[in-house]
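quick one before i forget lol
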Amino acid sequence: MRVLGIDPGSETLGWGVVDGVGSRYSMVAYGTVRSNPKQPFSQRLLNIYNGVAEVMAEHSPDVLSVEDTFYAVNVGVALKLGQVRGITLLLAEQRGLEIAEYAPRLIKQTVAGNGAAEKQQVGHMVKVLLGLKAIPTPHDAADALAIAICHFHHAGLKDKVKQALKKR
């Protein structure tokens, strides 16, 4: 299974591709899609659409694993992030990908063992879990890899539950 993890952002969107089965996985690639904050928001959305479409075309993921919406003090920021998430979900639907959404606390809990983990802790655990020599940078890309890793752990559990129910 190949999972594309997305950490949505309207200025910097992190992405990470991880291959594997169950709890055995390895990093394929990671990076960011950057947008100019001086551009109109609609142009930034187009840039994000094109950037994520390019990543999907290059890496052919089976699953899109994306950070779920969270509560933000600034409603405008939350709305913009929602629009960025919408673009990634649309791209996944257009390509027939499985879609998984995970809450930020669950991602941190799964990867770092603490739902309130700091970005540095998450980055360090991504490095350890993927056997990398350094923490992926920028943190948006490390977070995207964490989101992909989270899917491997939770998808395996869902599969085991489905198999157990079939045996009944």
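fyi The helical segments are 41-59, 75-94, 104-112, 119-130, 139-166.
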